[in-house]
Amino acid sequence: MKKIISLLICAFVALNMSFAQQQITPAKKGVQYGKKIDAQNAISVADLEKKLQKNENFNGKITGEVVEVCKKKGCFLTLKRADGESVMVRFTDYGYFVPADIVGKKITVEGRAKIKETSVEWLQHYAEDKGASKEEIAKITKPKTDISIVADGVVVL
């Protein structure tokens, strides 16, 4: 009996995860994900870079354009930087997800930002979630130090 119940629970969880992107509200102006926030007093990604050169951490709101989103279930996104690179934004405790149609939209996130080294394993994991090929993933051989944001909330502008 325990095995049957465990199997049913696993099946339910797997089914929920497979439909995760379908259940997320489409990204339109004013739509919020996670904690309810607004764009007041938000800084740009460029200003964030400057602040992190002086301080280890930043707590507050950041506005930017979404470049990519996790293709599997919307569990992270990246924001555009002037140099062509991007800033990784993950969500607090993976408590919410964003839709794939958020790419290209301007958003504000509220949370914590810092300079962080990301291991090769995590870089490869993120590349896989972005839909990279096995060849592209295999080329990731060094850790990367960059800006990382953990967001409590997101609002589409």
UniProtKB/TrEMBL annotation:
Signal sequence, start to end: 1-22
Matches recorded under InterPro entries: DUF4920 (IPR032577)
Name of this protein: DUF4920 domain-containing protein
Superkingdom per UniProt: Bacteria
UniProt keywords, alphabetically: Signal
Keyword match Signal: yes
